[in-house]
Amino acid sequence: MQQQQQRQQSSSSMARMRATGAMLVEFYEGSDTSRKAVLNEELSELRRRPEAWRDALEWVSQARDLGSQGGEAMYLAYFAASALEEAVGFLDGEGRRMVRLALFAPVEDQSASALLSAARGAVATPAAVRTRLCKVYVDIGKAAWPQEMPEFLDEICAAALAPDPGTAALGAELLALCAEEFLLPTNRRGITASRQRELRNLVGQHVPQLVGLVTEVLKRPHGEARALLRCLATLVGWAPLAADHASPRLLETLFRIVERDLLQNKRTAIGAVRALDAVLAKRLVPPDMAQLVMETGGRVLSLLRAVTSVLDSSDSEDDDETQELVGMVCELVATFVEQHLPRVVASSSFPVGDLLSLIASLTFSRAVNAAGSLRRTLRPWETVVGFVSENGLHHLAAATGEGLAGVLETLLKTRLLFASNASALDALDEDDASDFCFLKSVRHHHHHHHPEEDDEPGDIEDLILNLAGGEPDPRALGDDELRLLLTESIELIAAAARGPFGTYVADKIAVAALGDLEATLTRAFRNQDKQAAVDAATLLYALAAAGANAPEATLARAATVAVEAARAILREQRGTQQRGAFANLEAAALDALRELVPALAWRAPDDAIVGGALDVAALALDASNRPEPVQRGAAWLVLALAKTGAGHHLSNFDAWAATATSPPRCRALVYRAAACVSISSPDRFEALVAPLAAPLEAAARGIERIGTPLSFSGDAKRDDVVDPTTLEAVSRAARSLAALCAGFAKDGAARGAIATAFFRNGDASPTRRALRTTPSLLAYCAARALRPATASGDPRLARAAASARAPHLAAAAAIVDLLIAASRALGHDKAGAVALDSVRALLAAFDLANPAVSVDRRVSGSRPPRAAALYLLKAACQILAAVAADNEASAKRSQVVPDACDLIARHVAPLAADADLKADLFPALVQLAKRLLVDQWAAFVKPSSRKTECRDDRATHFFDAICDLLAAAVRGLDLPATCDVRGGGQCLFAAKTNDAVE
To answer: Is the pTM of this model over 0.85?
Structure first.
């Protein structure tokens, strides 16, 4: 009876197999596209059946019977393997045992094992199906080894050691999969963290066995190398490797595989190099370390000889495998240098010169150049230069400096210039229309500032850096792979020119760059040759990198040539909006001056050169026909010259006039330069600041005419007493003042010195007068930026309303920047208290406009614009965070905590309750909460309590409000949209907060 039931079940399964096979053929080969969706759903239902895995097991073994039906066997086998892979995580112990025996049973009836049958060629199983079945088998072990199947790993190892090539190949593949699935963090999906740790520990216990097996099999003439090399690289990277595992026998075997397979089997050679790199990078100290290092060094030399010989004789020099092989060999050499150069240098018997000569042969190999792999050969040189420089190995620099200088000169003249290497560089320059200068745009660069388009606010230091002018732009050397190659090469030259190698490198490279620069510039402009323009930029950057550290005569010549070249470049392109390579050339000329002229000014001041550089900067600051990155380069040049003490050259420099149309970052840098020059002269510094206070005072006087900043009569023409032109002047002046404050803060100037400069005349000082206007100006601008907008279907009305709000929002944003920068630079007494007054004025504007209504979808009438509401709320958080972060005693006694909690509870919390806005508000909220709970902790707790207790009920409510809001935001919960009004008039969260946030 039981046999009859089994026959019926088998017959039913076979019927389903054939029906499923027919469906798969129709799905993949049918022409009726309308049937695809129906068939896909039916096939998904088949996979979801509780017993689908039983059918899949039988189909995997029976699919060979459908071989006469063309693709049906492949479709069915793949479908069955996919069904098994989906089901394996839900099987019980008995199910796992059945699947394991059906796939891989090396101890009993091997003919019934699908994987072994396929490995031995008994069944023609497609590679994709074999891979999935191997994954299923390893997943079973991931779930059940060693509890249910203690012999799991031993069986795989036995298969890898089997004399049959097919069985050994299967064992090697399963070992590699086990290492990857059990160890790599990307493959731990579906198992618990405790099981992940258990698997790593289990594999760690078997590392000696596995490394020994891999070494043994790799020594065989026809061993399955590729999978075992994957296994070894994974083990070395993720398992606890002991020092004795890095045995001479293992290293010798790996080096032998590389040299054996360089020509005929590059993929295996790449795997061996990757495994070698992983072993050498482990910082192991095996027995007889010195001898092992010397032997390894000798093998590295032998490998480099073999690789360069093969590359020079290879016809397939531009294929992907050649590129990857070159890259991995370079990584291996760099790892060896990083880990073991100190040891080999200490031995007089190791030929360091031969090592560098072989690296040079690899670098300038014809195959490396043709394959576009030159950039990957730079890493060993970077490692050597960095190691020698960091350790001050002047004796090694003396022995190898001339050779390194020759390598870098050859690199510059034969590999980095289109004039000598056009075909290889052209292949790297993928996008001829690329415009790197214009891709380097930084937010806040536009003349018209739109705060509603800003990204999330960073921390206070990030904002201060941005207000001070940011960081210099990257080198303007094109885009994509070409830019990376040129930039990294210039950085290598700069590093070599600065350190112990500088004596040999700096003068040689500077002279080489000078020799080609004039002819290259002529060719670029005479023919409008883009490639020549890129070459000229490369030569200018190389000249700057080397010339700044060259002997004084070479430096003076380099600075003179750079000034003349920059003047010629800018005049040649006057009146044209240059883009791409020619705009980059302008930026490169200014960057070169920024390196060379200050270096000369410190060593041998030359007024003519400094004056010429300033003339060039003034020419480049002209916004009418210069791209913004070029203007930024000019502004950085002015700042660099100001810091050299060349004050008399800048004494008549009118910063306000020079930056009339400049973008904010350029204006910030120029004002920082003017401040550097005038800080020693109180009268001159006050003359610099006075024009910045005037627009703010003029606007404040206009506001006084309507009584209070929040007065509204309903007539926009009467209410908006400050015209857009004045508001634009306010924005510009506030940001310039912010740049001065931020620049001093970034440069680390003492607060006392800053305050003396800004407040020499006490309350009559321009800075004091400007800061006094900020509360009323901020309230006025915020109230009008938040002016409710009636929903209208007319886009013209919407645009008109947005246009009317934009100047107010821009001015508010500039004032916020000023308050943050001033608080950071001047401290609480000079600026922080005014910032708190401004926040209170801003809170009054919020009370009038109710920003929460801007996102309440139940309100159908007029409501504040959402973007402005969000921006101003985040701005208020930023101001309070800046004040809270102040470490002055007066700041600790300030009322920042009540104001901050009032802002959070009354305005931030209701907006953050909206799921769409939570992520928008959360970063600013975290910054504020961090500053409150870290820097203002004393405002929350009793000063002399033995245990941490809140100071009073109000402090408790404040603390609870902040913590509830943070917890809810972190957990992704909906925030309470209502608040209770509690003691002291403070609006706080309702006590009935969701229990989940406790």
So the answer is: no
